[in-house]
């Protein structure tokens, strides 16, 4: 944009200088063909100058529109992020409430949450620094207390409640 403005300023200066030159040539009664050539150059330079000025204004307006749109999208994105955070928090609280109603121990709650997140028995054992047998026992307790036959039914139980 700065380049365009600089070019426009130089073009305007050239137009002014050509007008002065045309006036001087006319006063000195230079041949008519030369005056026509100068006049054509002035008209072409003026046309180019007008085109550049209009183009700069159009692009400036477009930039302003884009800035407003970016601002609106940023606000919308922030609102959606806040809604998502709230939904995530509400979902987590609903899971914990259901775990409480099922009477899960704190260890079973952690294992149940990790199962819902898709961790394998081996991964949960590694995260919890315990044996896979212990995790299998806790997972079985979660399934028994939740009346869900397995991991997929447990996940489905919570996703069905979203509707």
UniProtKB/TrEMBL annotation:
Where the record annotates domain HTH luxR-type, the positions are 101-158
Record has Transmembrane helix as a keyword:
yes
Which superkingdom heads the taxonomic lineage of this protein's source? Bacteria
Query: Which keywords label this protein?
Result: Membrane, Transmembrane, Transmembrane helix
Q: Which InterPro entries match?
A: Sig_transdc_resp-reg_C-effctor, Tscrpt_reg_LuxR_C, WH-like_DNA-bd_sf
Q: Does the keyword Secreted apply?
A: no
Q: Name one GO molecular function term.
A: DNA binding
GO annotations under biological process?
regulation of DNA-templated transcription
TM stretches of this protein = 32-54
Q: What is this protein called?
A: Helix-turn-helix transcriptional regulator
Source organism of this protein record: Pseudidiomarina taiwanensis
């Amino acid at each position: 944009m700065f380049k365009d403005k600089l070019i426009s300023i130089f073009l305007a200066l050239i137009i002014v200088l050509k007008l002065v030159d045309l006036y001087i040539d006319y006063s000195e009664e230079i041949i008519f063909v030369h005056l026509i050539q100068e006049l054509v150059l002035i008209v072409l330079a003026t046309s180019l100058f007008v085109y550049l000025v209009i183009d700069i204004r159009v692009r400036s307006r477009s930039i302003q529109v884009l800035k407003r749109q970016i601002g609106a999208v940023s606000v919308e994105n922030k609102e959606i992020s806040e809604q998502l955070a709230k939904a995530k928090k509400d979902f987590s609280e609903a899971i914990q409430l259901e775990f409480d109603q099922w009477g899960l121990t704190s260890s079973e709650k952690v294992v149940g949450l990790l199962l819902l997140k898709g961790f394998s028995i081996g991964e949960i054992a590694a995260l919890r620094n315990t044996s896979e047998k212990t995790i299998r026992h806790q997972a079985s307790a979660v399934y028994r207390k939740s009346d869900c036959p397995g991991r997929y039914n447990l996940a489905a139980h919570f996703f069905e409640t979203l509707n």
